Fold this sequence. Notes:
Elements lengths: L29 E3 L1 H4 L5 E7 L10 H14 L7 E5 L3 H13 L2 E7 H4 L2 H8 L3 E5 L4 H15 L4 E2 L7 H18 L6 E5 L4 H13 L4 E7 L28 E5 L1 H15 L5 H16 L3 E7 L13 H6 L12
Parallel strand pairs: 2-10, 3-4, 3-6, 4-5, 7-8, 7-10, 8-9
Antiparallel strand pairs: 1-2
Helix pairs in contact: 2-3, 2-7, 3-5, 7-8, 9-10
Amino acid sequence: MGSINQNSLAPACPVIVDQSILKKIGNTPLIHMENISKRYPNVEIYAKAEWRNAGGSVKSRPALQMIEDGEASGQLTKEKIILDSTSGNTGVAYALIGKIKGYRVKLVMPANAVKERKGVMADFYGAEIVSSSPFEGSDGAIILAKEIYDKDPDKYFMPDQYNNDSNWRAHYLHTAEEIWKQTNGEITHFCAGIGTGGTIMGNTRKFRELNPKIQCYAVEPAEELHGLEGLKHMASSIVPGIYDESILDGKISVVTEDGYNMVETLEKEEGILVGHSSAAAIVAAMELAEKIDKGVIVTVFPDSCDTTYINFGKFKEFQDSQLPPATHKTDH
Length: 332
């Protein structure tokens, strides 16, 4: 594949610097996997279309929660710079929300992610970007961001998405309630990928209150050196402070190749263009569907690639042209 024109990856429309855009975070559609569900009698599979959030991903929810909780506590003031590590979606959300609310934003990103679409978008929204080693993935960005903060803590507000309870609270307060209402309380199983852990932790805690019979599973890569961008292999990664495996019913491991293949399956069978973290979530949902006689399974599509250059059957071709899989870890 030829080189990508970076200018073409920036948002096509001007940035709207009006607080009303923040109301477009949350209340995303729940999509029925109509054709995939036909494989399983009496089982329905659904996915939350999180690309419909302002900012384009599920990470807009915790980013807004962490920033607004920081404002409410007095820890975030206009004099401070919002600083955090990210390899993608959270950075775009911080940058967009910071621009709307009038905050400076500094993001630490792996060097390979800086040049990709999400790095370009974060830059477009005005964030200052510091590059970390592309070979250390999201863990390297975490370490460098902490070093920058420790040198001048009074200068920064560091949400620290991996250790901030406001991350999972965003899903506890909003996402799970939305799913409950959208399924008329009929959800029986929930699964979501582990990045920071916020999505699976927040939803699980709320579902435990709404109906303790709902089973909740985290989705992780099967391999230590994997290519499922956005997901953490917990045994070989820095474990987020907000992640508590004890409240889950279990984990489902997804092989990288299965995630890649599911990208194309979703495109062909459901007409949905998503990346491999979303595809891995469906692989996990299908594994659950094979084990139950009846149920309503809900998962989360963190974002979409319907406006990028890695769709229309070109996903695997694009992936094969990039750096080794171990360098492609990001946060969802």
